[in-house]
Specification:
This protein is α+β, with helices and mostly antiparallel strands and about 325 residues long. Among the domains are: about 5-125, no CATH class; about 245-333, no CATH class. The chain has 10 helices and 10 strands. It has helices spanning about 5-20, 25-35, 50-55, 65-80, 85-105, 135-150, 150-190, 245-255, 255-265, 320-330; strands at about 195-200, 210-215, 225-230, 240-245, 270-275, 280-285, 290, 290-295, 295-300, 310. It has a 4-stranded antiparallel β-sheet.
Length: about 325
């Protein structure tokens, strides 16, 4: 999730656990710090843009490593403030802040390596967009209420309410995702398409309009399918579009290092294409909408894939028209 959301979540969790045992502002501040720490891995460069992507949300997002780090951070905080008697409570608060960061990240589609060092599997539920104010605002309101209300007990209740509402919103996202997935599968079966994999993830900033990507089970089918489904569509037929996924290029270059790395990280939701200047381009199909994607990487000339560092080439639609289209699609299913 975005940095503001992680700060808000960290503060809310720390305030909720510390309660009246310490100053609310102190708990909120350290919750914000601990909620930010895992994302400092973006400062590490791994050699090229593709590696920077697949190795983000790795060791710094591991539940195991964060659990080991939590008592050290809690000891430092307790000692700094002369609250040795609160060490265990600080430990619990900061551990929860640290681990809820990657757990929330795992609700997005990006891929979070929660179980390092035991596996590098990138977990990604994909039921919430990376920025969603409907999730973030209750947390912010709850923390601000806890900080500003003269009645401390009432302020803490507001903070708890913010955590409950934001968590309920995540639950709603999972239910909506399951509904859309079932709708999409029925539609594909009606058309005689057996989907090897199905990706269902919300369009930006909300959980009412969803993008669906289907990879066919038939290896001879060179296309992936894409559709946009609203929770308000009812019995409206799903309208699928077909797009080339570069099956021939995948057969030729699928074992090349960078292709294999991104294919595994994206759970197969990639496409390959040759650029006009003769380079191999790989696209992560999970983040974007045809033909615009955040993560495109040029991997070098076709005869020497991987011989040069991967270069990211993002293509994004104009924000204004894209948001207007989303609004129209929601109200006009």
């Amino acid at each position: 999730m975005d940095s503001l959301t992680q700060i808000a979540l960290g503060s809310a969790v720390a305030v909720g656990v510390m309660g009246r045992h310490t100053a609310v502002r102190k708990a909120a501040a350290w919750g914000a710090v601990a909620g930010t720490l895992p994302d400092l891995d973006v400062l590490i460069e791994h050699g090229d843009a593709l590696l920077d992507m697949v190795l983000h949300r790795a060791e710094s997002h591991s539940l195991f490593y964060l659990t080991l780090f939590a008592p050290l951070l809690a000891w430092g905080v307790a000692r700094l403030h002369g609250e040795a008697g609160l060490f265990r409570r600080w430990w619990l608060a900061l551990w929860l802040v640290l681990v809820t960061h990657p757990l929330l990240d795992a609700m997005t589609v990006y891929g979070t390596q929660l179980l390092l060092p035991f596996t590098r599997h990138p977990f990604g539920v994909g039921s919430v967009f990376i920025i969603d104010l409907a999730y973030t605002l209750p947390l912010i309101v709850g923390v601000l209420a806890a900080l500003r209300m003269r009645d401390g007990t009432r302020g803490l209740r507001w903070n708890v309410a913010g955590l409950v509402l934001s968590t309920a919103y995540l639950g709603w996202g999972v239910l909506a995702q399951q509904h859309v997935e079932q709708t999409a599968r029925v539609s594909l079966q009606t058309q005689g398409v057996v989907a090897q994999r199905l990706l269902v993830t919300p369009m930006p900033l909300q959980t009412l309009l969803w993008r669906v990507v289907a990879l066919p089970d038939d290896p001879a089918d060179p296309h992936f399918r894409e559709a946009v489904v609203s929770v308000f569509d009812g019995v409206r037929p799903v309208e699928w579009t077909r797009h080339e996924r570069g099956a021939a290029l995948m057969a030729q270059h699928g074992q090349a290092g960078p292709v294999a790395q991104l294919t595994a990280f994206a759970h197969g939701f990639v496409k390959l294409a040759a650029t006009p200047d003769g380079q191999l381009r790989i696209t992560d199909l999970r983040m974007g909408q045809e033909p615009d994607y955040v993560f495109n990487f040029d991997l070098g000339p076709l005869h020497a894939v991987g011989s040069v560092p991967a270069a990211q080439v993002s293509t994004r639609p104009a924000i204004g028209p894209a948001l207007r289209w989303m609004g129209q699609r929601l109200v006009n299913p």
